[in-house]
Amino acid sequence: MKRFIEEVPRAQVSLLPECLDDYVGEDNPVRVVEVFVDGLDLGQLGFKGVDPQATGRPSYHPSVLLKIYIYGYLNRIQSSRRLEREAQRNVELMWLVGRLTPDFKTIANFRKDHGAAIRKVGSQFVALCRKLELFSQAIVAIDGSKFKAVNNRDKNYTNAKVQRRLEQIEASIDRYLAAMDTADRTQPAEAEAKTIRLQEKISKLKAQMAQLKEIEARLREEPDQQLSLTDPDARSMATSGRGTGVVGYNVQTAVDATHHLIVAHEVTNVGNDRAQLASMSEKAQAATGIQDLTVVADRGYFKGEEILQCEQAGITAYVPKPLTSGSKAEGRFGKQDFIYLAQDDQY
């Protein structure tokens, strides 16, 4: 077609770069990942398979799988199956791992078996950032994010949920019993078959009631009166949406205000952030090595004891105070509308 930018023919290989390195720019982040991983002592960090076995099938070097993991982290690719596909088609990842293509099971097992070693890699990265003086501004921001767990909402139980389901089952049983009485009085030709079906449903409901009674007994032993069957550590947490929630974890992160680097993180199963300010601030202080650290957080972190603990540790915390009074909503003046006059001892 004339007067349009024309595509390059797929069979025209002579116009392509002669080597894979020409596809990756000098400022591409994968070059940083390459240098960083190659400079680590993987054996000392706890990675297995650094020294090859004398016999058996050759394995992938841990540095190859670690590079794939870091690339997935930087590009928000969490699935091992997606990482397998990216290694087969993504030019950046081909360059990074030398066109090696591990299968998804190998990638998943590497993450599963080297959790502690990968955390140490994160610590090494924070130490490198300190050497490069990337934390010179002494300001970090703290916030929490809700991460969904493997546990389904139907597999998470509280006392209120158990009682509500027991009431629903009892109502269903009563309804089926009434239907059976009606069928017995009418005595149509199909009444016997209908009665058998209703009896089967009642048996299933009674089995569910027995299971809920067992769960209710287990709930009494839980310190927070909450039980998750699939993922035991997961907890039901409210989210920002009205009337919504998620069964998962509250992941706390402290982020450098200048370069937006995560300097510290912590996985909790507490739904609110009120008790997390001091611990996360101290983790950020230890990670950055800055004693006079300044921390900012939203009003969900406001708690007098936490702010006092930060002050005692030499950390300056800026947290807005939440408005807990209902005066404004009811059309009256709030406490923030008054000014205290010390000489007159009045507002």
From TrEMBL:
<protein>
    <submittedName>
        <fullName>Transposase</fullName>
    </submittedName>
</protein>
<dbReference type="GO" id="GO:0003677">
    <property type="term" value="F:DNA binding"/>
</dbReference>
<keyword id="KW-0175">Coiled coil</keyword>
<dbReference type="InterPro" id="IPR008490">
    <property type="entry name" value="Transposase_InsH_N"/>
</dbReference>
<feature type="coiled-coil region">
    <location>
        <begin position="159"/>
        <end position="222"/>
    </location>
</feature>
<feature type="domain" description="Transposase InsH N-terminal">
    <location>
        <begin position="19"/>
        <end position="112"/>
    </location>
</feature>
<dbReference type="Pfam" id="PF01609">
    <property type="entry name" value="DDE_Tnp_1"/>
</dbReference>
<dbReference type="Pfam" id="PF05598">
    <property type="entry name" value="DUF772"/>
</dbReference>
<dbReference type="InterPro" id="IPR047629">
    <property type="entry name" value="IS1182_transpos"/>
</dbReference>
<dbReference type="GO" id="GO:0004803">
    <property type="term" value="F:transposase activity"/>
</dbReference>
<dbReference type="InterPro" id="IPR002559">
    <property type="entry name" value="Transposase_11"/>
</dbReference>
<dbReference type="GO" id="GO:0006313">
    <property type="term" value="P:DNA transposition"/>
</dbReference>
<feature type="region of interest" description="Disordered">
    <location>
        <begin position="222"/>
        <end position="241"/>
    </location>
</feature>
<feature type="domain" description="Transposase IS4-like">
    <location>
        <begin position="239"/>
        <end position="316"/>
    </location>
</feature>
